[in-house]
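Case study.
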Amino acid sequence: MTQGAHSFSVERGLNAWREEIDAPVAAFFSSCVHCGLCAQACPFFVETGDPKYTPIHKLEPMRLLWEQEFTLWGKLKKTVKDRVDAQLGRAPKPLITDEMLEEWEPLLYDSCSMCGRCSMVCPVGNDIHYMIRKAREGMVASGHSPEGLVAASVRAVNTGSPMGLQWKTLDVQIKHVETATGLEVPIDKQGAEYLVLLSSMEIINFPEYLEAITKIFDHAGVSWTLSKTCFEATNAGIQIGSKDIAATLVQRVVDAAEQLQVKNVISPECGHAYTAIRWEGPNAIKRAYPFKVYHIIEVLDQLRADGRIKTEGKEMDRLSMHDPCNLARKSGVVQQQRSLMDLVASNFVDLKEHGEFQWCCGAGGGVSSNERAEPLKLAAFKRKKAQIEEVEPERMVTMCATCRTQLEEGLEEFNMDIPVVGLTEIIADHLVEKEVENKKAEES
Amino acid sequence: MTPMDFLLLTKGPLFSLAIAIFALGILIRLFEIFALGRAHNYAAARGNEVIPGLKTMYRRFNPDPGTFKRSTFDVVVGTLWHVGFVIALLMFIPHIELIKSTLGVSWPGLPNPVVDAVTAITLLGLVAVLIHRLTHPVKRFLSTPQDYLIWAVTFLPVLTGYLAYHRLINPYPLALGLHIFTVEIFLIVLPFTKLTHIFTAFVARYYNGAIFGRKGIQS
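After joint prediction, the assembly is written out as follows.
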């Protein structure tokens, strides 16, 4: 990204794939029998009906490379082919060409949110999204990644935010929160228990999140801080598929956390940011963290379990919930958000397929940063829409800024009057006021 | 060559050759997979890898309700003919006798009429999945010549076994010889094609379960 376009080539892409192909990938490619069940698990196929969006097909170029170079049979075939070509005096046809990768670029980026649902369904057990993530490394190295994601990555490296957001914008918001709540938003506080990260999407679209955690952490007596040097939790390098960019961005979080000597880092209401820091980050920088990483929902549920969050009153309308893929299926956080809902909702109904089998909103995995993918993003949303229509909630709750934006935009597109709220804000709305709590304590 | 010569050839040197190619081929395929290894994972685990890995090896026999609903034909007919194939292979008394004479292990078989019925169902199932492959938009799109090849080499041993049992090919040594010959083709083709999924699917399922299990999800 930071280098010139001339340094990208098919050969570099293939080298990236050679590095990425490991035992699971070889086992997966060896096992696919083209049954096509993965298509039925993919919102991009289900809602378009176009077979080219079948998840395993998106990996065909990488499979070709694996077959030719990582299997005895493939190597034999290549040797014979080369001999025949030499005999006939013609140049060997390249296995994978620029044209092929160009054709596959929209398949690997525009029509895949790396939601991982296909990986849960494949009868032979292929973790397809694991391979898509790897395939993207080769796409970046060969110069075949979408402009929107390239731009977001460049902005993330240069400014610290994929949306080019600067501290001064956040600072204005912090001032607003402080005025509205009368509480201090701690900045660069050494030795705090938690370093709170945010996502640019959240800062721009949902400033209520920062206010909510300020209130909740004050209520629960949690010591926390923001970092002026690093407030962005998302990692464009992981979305686009560049280990180098991923490592650069993760290192900033690690540096900030180490500098402030915090025990824990909190990923915001953003599913991608959580998987990026929690699961991929340590592997990007090739070392374990000296701190723990939690999604805000995990922290809130722990506070609830410890009795540190006291709430009053409940939401009376019919609420349902969208599990972000990155949080539920890809990170094992399923029960926590439901326990929190129980605390504040009296009329909660789950979508029929939820938790590890939930359907993606259609915007993850970089799809929302890729303008070209806009029509597909909206098409994929129709699966979510159908799920929502089944249970007819009055409002939807979620815990990911990208999902929330997609739900809001999608529901509006289809003229469905269903507001979408963040779970953290609902919790903040029901906190027992401190003065009331103190009075109660005095009375007793 | 007389039918008896053909039978002796298939039962003798050809069978040894097929078994050797099959065994060596599968060992190479598994070695090719495991030799690649996995990068060290530095992220703190939420869950175990081994138990979820083993569970997923079993769980993919039994799809989630949503998949069952969306792909009922695949699940029902797919399961039916796979189970039928394994029953015909392992529960037919002459097959058990053969295994006993070569490996020295044996188990009780099923009555011939039962295996016969199962075989008929398996054949019908295989024909049905072929038609499905030729007509279903996703399957037809994905299918390569290899998919049809492995269908054929799977179908033929079942068909020839059925024909031999019912004495529909004469003389009998020719019928039996053809059956054994098609099994040999199956065994020889297996390691070089996606028929390896018979073995590698369990490896794939294990890795799938382990990768998700580490993150605290049973896949």
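Observations recorded in class. The longest helix of chain B spans residues 13-36. The mean pLDDT of chain B is 97. We will return to this complex in the next lecture.
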